[in-house]
Amino acid sequence: SKDVSADLAHVLYTKEEIQAKIEELAARIDADYVGRDILVVGVLKGAVMVMADLVRALHSHVTMDWMAVSSYGSGTQSSGVVRILKDLDTDLLGKDVLIVEDIIDSGLTLSWLLANLHSRGPASVEICTLLRKPEAAKVEIDVKYVGMEIPNEFVVGYGLDFDEKYRNLDFIGTLAPHIYE
Ligand code: PRP
Ligand code: MN
Ligand code: MG
């Protein structure tokens, strides 16, 4: 079949740019968590690539766990009403939790997730996201670690999907209009 990269309009961030940003985030996180173990929580499925690269760039002691959540409601827009498809295996009591996301769009998923995880008695909860769309925010969330802020455009690759596709690209780009029109 045709190379998937043929479906892309522009490359937003190359593999090298993403890896450099991940290294930067990891260095900041290591500096902030000196002497503390980190429970890194990846939000399936988008966060898999960031998670895999971030934890390998960290020097801190980490354990990993995963959550899968789904927004109720229509189509591609997040509704803010979230249901848990896969919960954590780990008890959060007293843990330093770092949520890892690929992107914060409206912020509704994360806003719900934050409240949910906070209710479980962790010592701390912080967020690390590779991408953030400030213009799309419907709720303000305090995010400690942000890789890049991007315009309100539909992006795919490096975990980000369109109709479950393009997650496997090692770069981030915008889709060619003929794909979604
Ligand atoms: C995407 C993305 C974030 C969320 C951000 O996940 O990976 O988790 O949407 O949107 P929000 O800030 O508007 O809530 P999606 O629900 O598409 O699931 P996926 O990770 O499996 O692709
Ligand atoms: Mn996601
Ligand atoms: Mg998605």
TrEMBL record:
Phosphoribosyltransferase domain mapped to chain residues: 15-162
EC number(s) per entry: 2.4.2.8
UniProt protein name: Hypoxanthine phosphoribosyltransferase
InterPro entries: HGPRT, Hxn_phspho_trans, PRTase-like, PRTase_dom
Lineage: superkingdom: Bacteria
PANTHER family tied to this protein: HYPOXANTHINE PHOSPHORIBOSYLTRANSFERASE, HYPOXANTHINE-GUANINE PHOSPHORIBOSYLTRANSFERASE
Statement: the UniProt record of this protein carries the keyword Transcription: no
Similarity remark: Belongs to the purine/pyrimidine phosphoribosyltransferase family.
Places the protein is found: Cytoplasm
Associated pathway: Purine metabolism; IMP biosynthesis via salvage pathway; IMP from hypoxanthine: step 1/1; Purine metabolism; GMP biosynthesis via salvage pathway; GMP from guanine: step 1/1
Organism: Paeniglutamicibacter terrestris
Cofactor: Mg(2+)
SUPFAM superfamilies: PRTase-like
GO MF annotation terms: glycosyltransferase activity
UniProt entry tagged with the keyword Hydrolase: no
Keywords: Cytoplasm, Glycosyltransferase, Magnesium, Metal-binding, Nucleotide-binding, Purine salvage, Transferase
Segments forming a coiled coil: none
Catalysed reaction equations from the record: GMP + diphosphate = guanine + 5-phospho-alpha-D-ribose 1-diphosphate; IMP + diphosphate = hypoxanthine + 5-phospho-alpha-D-ribose 1-diphosphate
One Pfam family in the UniProt entry: Pribosyltran
